Amino acid sequence: MEKAFILPPARKFRSEIIVGEKWTNLYKYLPDRDVVIITDENVYRLYHKGFPDFPVITIKPGEASKSIAAIEPIIKGLLKLKKDRSCFLIGIGGGVVCDITGFIASIYMRGIGFGFVSTTMLSQVDASVGGKNALNIDFYKNVIGTFTQPDFVICDPEMLMTLSDEEYLSGLAELIKMGFILDNTLVAKIERNREKIIRRDTRVIEPLIARSIKLKASVVSDDEKESGKRMILNFGHTFGHIIETFEKQKHGFAIAYGMKIAAGISVVNGLLSEKEEAKLNRILESFNIIHEIKLTASKFEEMLISDKKKKGDKISFILLESIGRAVIKEFTFKELVKLYKSVQDRL
Ligand SMILES: NC(=O)c1ccc[n+]([C@@H]2O[C@H](COP(=O)([O-])OP(=O)(O)OC[C@H]3O[C@@H](n4cnc5c(N)ncnc54)[C@H](O)[C@@H]3O)[C@@H](O)[C@H]2O)c1
Questions:
Q1: What pLDDT shows up at residue 306?
Q2: For residue 308, what pLDDT is reported?
Q3: Which residues does residue 241 pair with via DSSP β-bridges, in sequence order?
Q4: Residues of the chain predicted below pLDDT 70
Q5: How far apart are the CA of 267 and the centre of ligand 1, in A?
Q6: What pLDDT, on the 0 to 100 scale, is given for residue 155?
Q7: What is the 3-state secondary structure (H, E, C) of the chain?
Q8: Which protein residue's CA is at the shortest distance from atom 13 of ligand 1?
Q9: 325-332 and 314-322 beta bridge pairing
Q10: What is the pLDDT of residue 6?
């Protein structure tokens, strides 16, 4: 079992992420308060027998639950259960459950405590770590939300065994991303252990998940609200979010394609070598997470305006200088679309 902590500067509160803990030990981490569990129907079906004995609110699985309309019944459910500010929420699920639980906990009665049992690869390495939570409005992903850290996150890799191949591989893209932006050694380990990772050998994936979380925790501790370095975590996300929305691809697959585009743009900008770009593409393809897209440059242009990293007509875009070293550069929308067009033939 390994632990990581998020301690943003100027905060006394420490958020703890425990990797390798059995999720059934959740009761050890719960505060001595009223607890309500939020989960989705699939996770409930698979795991409810191990849930501690508290009221459970179950949502429909999937992205559509991340809307204002879908969270109103959950809030009404908490009111019906007569829960006040002393209530503590536990989200048991993937990124959707974690985002919703964190969002509701940050606004219910102006803020209550919460924790997660993170049940997908994507949520273990990314969504449940870092204190971001958000809902979507129409096509615009994650446009309303807060930065609020959970008290704790339990990541039990055994829970990944019940994920579909698609969900597992999609989550893996975020783990690979952490290596690309921050840690060449992590990339080497991922490349070396490809088969065992695909087989979900927990002895191999647990330390990789722990490493990825420690990298993210250290970035978030320095820049909780994404005013600087935290932006590097968005590598692949500028184009990835648009692909996710319009091609209806799984988050990780869309981000993987976004990383491919960003690596191409890094080469065109004279930062990344063609050899390293080829290595990045080879790794992504070896995990079968690159899926073709049909989106046009003009659709990208239209949607870039909703990017949360934009300031005026400029966007902070994440490039690679080398594998394991990301840099932030500002481009205007027009420059970015032009750059996209210039790399289309290498995708
Ligand atoms: N807040 C953040 O920092 C952050 C970061 C990355 C992604 N996200 C968000 O996370 C969401 C995607 O998360 P996700 O990929 O975990 O999706 P998800 O929560 O929808 O889970 C994917 C599917 O797997 C099922 N599932 C969950 N755990 C399971 C298990 N152990 N076994 C079998 N099935 C299981 C779910 O019911 C669902 O059908 C997106 O909304 C994305 O925007 C948030």
A1: 65
A2: 60
A3: none
A4: 8-12, 306-310
A5: 32
A6: 97
A7: CEEEEECCCCCCCCEEEEECCCHHHHHHHCCCCCEEEEEEHHHHHHHHHHCCCCCEEEECCCHHHCCHHHHHHHHHHHHHCCCCCCCEEEEEECHHHHHHHHHHHHHHHHCCEEEEEECCHHHHHHHCCCCEEEEEECCEEEEEEEECCCCEEEECHHHHHHCCHHHHHHHHHHHHHHHHHHCHHHHHHHHHCHHHHHCCCHHHHHHHHHHHHHHHHHHHHHCCCCCCHHHHHHCCHHHHHHHHHHCCCCHHHHHHHHHHHHHHHHHHCCCCCHHHHHHHHHHHHHCCCCCCCCCCHHHHHHHHCCCCCEECCEEEEEEEEECCEEEEEEEEHHHHHHHHHHHHHHC
A8: 95
A9: antiparallel
A10: 80
The verdict on the CB of residue 95 being under 6 Å from ligand 1 is yes
At residue 228, the pLDDT reads: 82
Q: Is the CB of 119 under 6 A from ligand 1?
A: yes
Burial (Cβ within 10 Å: 0-12, 13-18, ≥19) of residue 26: buried
Kindly state the tokens that stand for 202: 């927990």
Q: How many A from CA of 10 to the centre of ligand 1?
A: 31
Name the β-bridge partners of 19: 2, 155
Cα 167 to ligand 1 centre (Å): 8
63 lines ligand 1 (CB under 6 A): yes
Give the Å distances, CA to CA, from 78 to 10, 110, 122, 128, 250. Answer: 32, 14, 27, 22, 31
Quick: pLDDT tens for 225-273: 887 889 999 999 999 989 998 888 999 999 999 999 999 999 999 999 9
Please name the amino acid found at residue 115. Answer: G
- C-alpha–C-alpha distance, residues 39 and 36, integer Å: 10
Compute, in angstroms, the gap from residue 123 CA to the centroid of ligand 1: 6
The first and second tokens of residue 36, run together, are: 């309500």
Burial track 188-221 (b if 16+ CB lie within 10 A, e otherwise): ebbbebeeebeebebebbbbbbbbbbbbbbebbb
